[in-house]
Amino acid sequence: MIRVSVVGAKGRMGSHVVEAVNGAADMQLALALDAGDDLTAITPDNTDVVVEFTVPSVSLGNVLALVRQGVDVVVGTTGWADEKLDQVRAALDGAPRESQTVFIAPNFAISAVLADHFAKVAAPYFESAEVIELHHPTKVDAPSGTAIHTAQAIGEARRAAGLGEMPDATQTDGGSRGQVVDGVHVHAVRLRGLNAHEEVLFGNAGEQLVIRADSFDRISFMPGVLLAARKVASGAYPGLTVGLDHFLDL
Amino acid sequence: MIRVSVVGAKGRMGSHVVEAVNGAADMQLALALDAGDDLTAITPDNTDVVVEFTVPSVSLGNVLALVRQGVDVVVGTTGWADEKLDQVRAALDGAPRESQTVFIAPNFAISAVLADHFAKVAAPYFESAEVIELHHPTKVDAPSGTAIHTAQAIGEARRAAGLGEMPDATQTDGGSRGQVVDGVHVHAVRLRGLNAHEEVLFGNAGEQLVIRADSFDRISFMPGVLLAARKVASGAYPGLTVGLDHFLDL
Amino acid sequence: MIRVSVVGAKGRMGSHVVEAVNGAADMQLALALDAGDDLTAITPDNTDVVVEFTVPSVSLGNVLALVRQGVDVVVGTTGWADEKLDQVRAALDGAPRESQTVFIAPNFAISAVLADHFAKVAAPYFESAEVIELHHPTKVDAPSGTAIHTAQAIGEARRAAGLGEMPDATQTDGGSRGQVVDGVHVHAVRLRGLNAHEEVLFGNAGEQLVIRADSFDRISFMPGVLLAARKVASGAYPGLTVGLDHFLDL
Amino acid sequence: MIRVSVVGAKGRMGSHVVEAVNGAADMQLALALDAGDDLTAITPDNTDVVVEFTVPSVSLGNVLALVRQGVDVVVGTTGWADEKLDQVRAALDGAPRESQTVFIAPNFAISAVLADHFAKVAAPYFESAEVIELHHPTKVDAPSGTAIHTAQAIGEARRAAGLGEMPDATQTDGGSRGQVVDGVHVHAVRLRGLNAHEEVLFGNAGEQLVIRADSFDRISFMPGVLLAARKVASGAYPGLTVGLDHFLDL
Known about the structure:
Chain A is an alpha/beta fold. Helix content of chain A is 31%, strand content 26%. In chain A, strand 3, helix 2 (56-68) and strand 4 (72-75) form a beta-alpha-beta unit.
């Protein structure tokens, strides 16, 4: 049994994690802490892996403390700039236990991570590629970070394959052609009823390949979180790892 | 048997019309004329309906001449400004035969015409609506005229229903939110392999309605052309009619 | 203000109705009753419209009682055979108030009701039509009642238009061609993560029309429930009406 | 310049290959032969790679003869049972030139080959998976060989990952749940206007991944054919290779 503690256990994501851990046959919930609780209660004696879902302003502090206390951490909180990652690496260098692990993922939705990977693999083989992301209308930024990341991955793969610019005879577009990210047109739709969706379209003469990832609910992140907890608990990934794709067999 | 003559019979569209008329059990091909041929050969003695698919610069002249020669006309050529339509109406007023008919359609694709109609009907019942059009990358204008028309129809239907602005918390979008036509966001995708496609998305809390029209090939216009020829030949639509929706049971 | 009482207020649907009524600017919640509560508390003095979402075994009794108490009813409970509808009509004939109203809908999702209607309108214009419904894997029946209804509507519209059988050269299919309902192939997908979705595909040479309705969550029924409550409260639909399409401007 | 000869040059596929070779900057057309032409004209003196698109009844003989004449072959003709492949391998063992090459592909559509590969990679990460294939209504077999292959790949990947049966509470389905291939439900749609399309749906609680390959036209096979010709001409794949996936960077 993998003993999992949750930090941010009463939050939107954390409460789902508590439920998911309780529902997993190979896991048991150790400690469930939230703001105000004493983090030092989490030790290697009671916990194999901590799942941390809080807010960017406190997450770094939590992770550094947990590393010092000798436990492995899976981090779902966003906002990890390079400078913060360096601090985590430094903490891991001086960690009390051998091969201690921190895993950080900007996105735990397996479908989104796979879509991103597939887009990168497919990109060299198509003349055209565009990205459409669709979200709920209360999202304040457009396009989504995921869509920008996908577009950059496509752009990079095209350059590496020696592909030139995509065909496009458009002379006037009134803004309808979207934002160009690394040579790839990105379109953002905002629609009541949707949650978080991405569609990548690839085209050659006579054919199209479409890769679409739909996240209908934040519960969709749980399989990724549990997968990460298992991988981290296995001890096979000492040090800092960023991105769920490292834990998928791609 | 409806006797159909084709003007522009060697053109991209006209050649398909010749084939479609030859394949229709209730029609027979009368005259097939192209540039340089004598239009006066077409008369009520040999022709019930003329299908005219040429270019905007000669279409008006053709239609006026044909009306004066006493035949009914189905026009697929584009570029009909109001002033041109007035000339056609005037010609019809002085036409030699009783209840002579001219029918002009900006789009003969039944799926596109239905999609446009359905979008207008659905619009009052949804908080959000956006339009995505997708075309081959050699198209010079974006968004398509069809997409603009659909967006305007949605905008109008929303106003008539007393709906306000759509929910949209976007603060920065880098152009990814597309062009706003009458309050409706319109996105244009250009992809090798595609031909002409339109997708209209409607959303309410917890639900989505998607209407999509795909034209893979210009042969898709033929059922609409034949339908129009039959309706015009029926004599039930004297005068000028614009738009295939008038011939569908909506 | 429309005074709305809810019967079945603690149920899965009823609790959403209570919330939706509380959130509607033109409505106020009168009584919220559940199993065991006294239905006779609901009278014209405190209630304009009752929304009834219970179970088939008690719904008929509730509706008959409410009609006798002189209030109008919107019914979301399913399982209304013709014989039950006749009992409701009889009760309405002897109702205490003038032009009393009962409205019953098998489906309150506006997108599904519109999709069904659009399918019926489009059917006469296409050679081919098929229906794909997609649901969560805990659904016990396949295909969905909605998909069967849509297929029947398409079959009927084709017959009325004099269309023959659809083109299909299939010689062996191992069951992959799905169930044939009134000449229309119906396919049922069961996929974890989905809720209730229907896609209707229409095809002619060179073109396709796709109509898709997605219900991600039962909250999607609320706009339809509120719309029905407003229509019933308007007094414009005395007697029994079945089907949300009667309240849409189609 | 890669010198390419085409066998079956007047056929549906072969004529597209001739055109594609003529349009490729790094290739030149050597000989274009069709039924009745003398195959012995093709030799290493005039040809680097032969593309063979004929019919199953003559293809094996053609390939064996070409191998004996010392040229490399890309084969697009279908119908290659194991026993035939063994004959090709034997011919290659006794071939006149060092490292002679034969490449056979059941499918040259890059989008379809990628979709198949992606389905296999994604399969271990999802509770549910189903396959929908959609084709023109003149196809005599259902489901398509590609769909069966995809379903088998998914079934195999699920077993290898230790996944059990997919969740499915269906009690009665009237045939709507399609054909079960290796535990995976496969649905076949036949619709006028479509050509060859495959959609693979994967689902977990709260999320969906959709991979869709559309072949609108047989011209879609040309990028795959040219890619194969280049790979074969490179000399890097001596012997027999089956499947375009071997030439993609997956």
